[in-house]
Design brief:
By secondary structure, this protein is an alpha/beta fold. It has helices spanning 2-12, 27-47, 53-56, 58-64, 66-77, 99-114, 142-159, 179-194, 203-229, 241-253; strands at 88-94, 118-123, 164-166, 233-237, 258-263, 270-274. Strand 2, helix 7 and strand 3 form a beta-alpha-beta unit.
């Protein structure tokens, strides 16, 4: 039994070598994302509630539950069967360490795969200069936050056997967007970052504005890359801010079907929209 569990976890991470390893990753994050899931997979079934809390909760628990979640989805979808019209679906996951995003998209991906669709995820591999994980309240820890986000996203995607398109290698030149549209997306990102309703003209705002403009250009290049590859559907979180906004606008202009989602007003619900955020 022990050897079977070790072999299962080894196969879950077999393709890690194909993805760039996080740089500047803290030892505690490496242990949390790599070692603890293996220990939890071994000892949770044996010790149950007596298993140390470190192995029962948090990121380690999310990763080690992958086999059970995959089996549950496949079992529930078995009676529905395969589709006669398989689609090429790409998720713009981007922030791999965002728990709401990956929880939503992993489940959607497993269901789509069970139906016979091709599914891939674009995940940021420490390529964005500014994003929703880099907050104004944790500027001293941005490097660690960025590496931990990519590490967690990488392990989760691989544990659930979900193919990853690294953001850094999913870039193409092509269509541009109107400057006022880019500025609107950048300003929205700045308001969220500084947690204010109106921006001043300080040097810190100017510096952050340039960083978000760079992030917007990378999102734009991602949109052009996807347009070139012509997926049947693109799914992303809400589609606001520089992480997703420019890519969404490029895809909409090219008539690539885009589905966005966000939390619904009713608890534990999700709202889906075509094209808009």
């Amino acid at each position: 039994m022990l050897l079977k569990r070790l072999e299962l976890l080894r196969s879950m991470n077999a393709s890690h070598n194909e993805l760039r390893k996080p740089h500047n990753l803290r030892t505690r994050d490496a242990v949390r994302h790599s070692l603890l899931p293996i220990l939890g997979q071994i000892f949770n079934p044996i010790l149950g509630a007596a298993c140390p809390r470190l192995l029962r909760e948090g990121d380690a628990r999310l990763i080690q539950q992958a086999p059970q979640v995959i089996n549950a989805v496949n079992k529930s979808m078995k009676s529905i069967g395969k589709t006669s019209n398989p689609l090429d679906v790409i998720f713009l996951t981007m922030i791999g360490g965002h728990r709401y995003i990956f929880a939503t998209e992993v489940l959607l991906s497993l269901i789509l795969q069970a139906r016979g669709h091709r599914v891939r995820h674009v995940v940021c591999d420490q390529h964005l200069p500014s994003c929703e994980s880099k907050k104004s309240t944790n500027t001293d820890n941005w490097d660690a936050t960025c590496s931990s986000c990519w590490s967690l996203g990488r392990h989760i995607q691989e544990s659930f056997h979900l193919p990853v398109l690294p953001f850094s290698s999913s870039q193409s030149q092509g269509a541009d967007l109107p400057s006022d549209m880019i500025s609107e997306i950048v300003e929205a990102s700045l308001l969220k970052f500084f947690m204010v309703g109106q921006l001043d003209d300080s040097s810190s705002v100017q510096a952050r504005r340039e960083s978000y403009r760079e992030a917007a250009s990378k999102s734009l290049a991602l949109g052009n890359y996807l347009v070139e590859h012509k997926p049947d559907r693109v799914i992303m979180s809400h589609g606001i801010y520089t992480t997703w906004g420019p890519a969404r606008e490029v895809l909409n202009a090219a008539n690539v079907p885009v589905l966005t989602y966000g939390k619904g007003k009713k608890r534990s619900t999700i709202k889906f929209n075509w094209k808009t955020s």
